[in-house]
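lol ok so funny story. i was supposed to be doing the assay writeup but got distracted and ended up predicting the structure for this chain instead. priorities right. anyway since i did it might as well share w the group, maybe its usefull for someone
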Amino acid sequence: MKLPVCCLAAFFLTAGVRAGTVIYTDSTHPVMGNDGTDVTIVLLDAPDRLQAQLFGPLPADPAQAEQQARSVISSPAFQQRQQDLAGTYAGLTRAWSLGVEKYPAVVFDDKWVVYGTTDVGVATQQLTAWQERGQ
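and the output, tada:
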């Protein structure tokens, strides 16, 4: 993903982490260095993990797997967790729509992305350095 160079971006980033900061990661890449700043964290493996929790291992026999899945879907527990599942897919869809190519990634204001870290401070430094080289 190419990062646009903009003078205003450098100004905004000097004021600290913006409210539009999102970390896209998974459960094997924990978030580091988040010192209570307003950052949204999206775990990209959350849909799979939640589905595994809800459905468990399905039998190899298709008819039995279908029966088990229908039983889970019709349960009150699933009805309560369905919104959670939809929310996890919303985060995954947002990453895809932004064009996030790999993770971990820190995305600032849906415009700038820094790959390879979950530390917002490190990502901010890398973005600022990149912007300074481009001017």
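The longest helix spans residues 76-98. The chain has one domain: 7-134.
back to the writeup now i swear
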